[in-house]
Amino acid sequence: MTPDLDSLRLLVLVGELGSLGRAAERLGVAQPSASKRLATLERALGLVLVDRGRRGSVLTPAGVVVGERARRVLDEVAGLLEGAEALRSAREAGLRVAASMTVAEHLAPGWIAELRRHRPELRVGLRVTNSETVVGLVRDGAVDVGFVEAPGALAGLSTRRVAVDRLALVVAPGHPWARRRRELTAAELATVPLVVRERGSGTRDTLDRALPDACPPALELGSTTAVRGAVVAGVAPAVLSVLAVGLDLADGRLVEVPVALDLRRVLRAVWPGGRRLVGPAAELLAAATRRSSMGP
Prior knowledge:
By secondary structure, the protein is of the alpha/beta class. 47% of the residues lie in helices and 21% in strands.
C-alpha cells in the first residue's frame, strides 16, 4: 500500500515536535485518529516508526530514515504545487532570495518581516536549500541575493557577514556522554561515528574542516530537522547549530557535550562579484545586518 501524504506529514511532524498530540493538533486532527493513522502506516511498511513513551513520542532509528525520505517526498510535492502556482501567476517575485537551511529557518523570516514592514507591497520569493546550491543559484543569476553558512572563499562572489553562529556537539539524555564534564578532544571525537548533514551543507563543511580525519558517519541526512530527530532517537551524536537545538537543550531533550574545538562560523550574504546590491536586495541585507548587531 502506498502511504498517503497526510500520514507522511504526521510522521515528519512527530519527529519535529516530539509529541504525537502536538503533531495531531498541528494537522487539525484528533489524537486517536492520528495514532490510528500512524499504526496503519507502520503496518503498511512493516516497521516500527515511533517510540511512544511518557515523555512524548520520538522516531525510532527506522522512523528517522523513513521520516527523512517522507520529507523529500513532501518537498517534491510542495515544489510541484509551487511551480504550478508560479505558472498560474503572471507576476514575478519582486525579490528572489535563496538561503541555507539554518539561516532560512531561524533568521531569514525576521529579516524579511522587517523589510516588509517598510515595503508591504513587496513580494519575496525564498528558496531554502543547502549552502552549495545557494552559491550555484547566485552564480547562475537565479536569485538576487543568497545567504550561506559555508566556510572558505567563494570565487566570483561578493560577500558580507550578517551573523555569527556556533555549532554544538549534542547527544540524547541517555547517551554516556550526557553527564560528561571533561572536554572531548578533536582526536576523541574523530573516532566516533556521527549523524551528519549531506555534503554541500554549511554545517557539514564546517564539521569536515574541524575534523578532517573523522571516521565515516553513522547516518547522513538531508535536513537539520532530520539530524536532530536522529539524535533524539538515540542513533548517534551530532554537531548542530545552537539556533536549531536551543529549545531542545533548554527542555532537556538534548544535552550539549563540551568539546575542545572552536565550532563558530560566520553566516554571510552572497551576490555576484563586481556588482553593488541595490533596491530590495540591499534593503534586505541592511535589515539582516541591523538585526545581527542587535543580538538575539
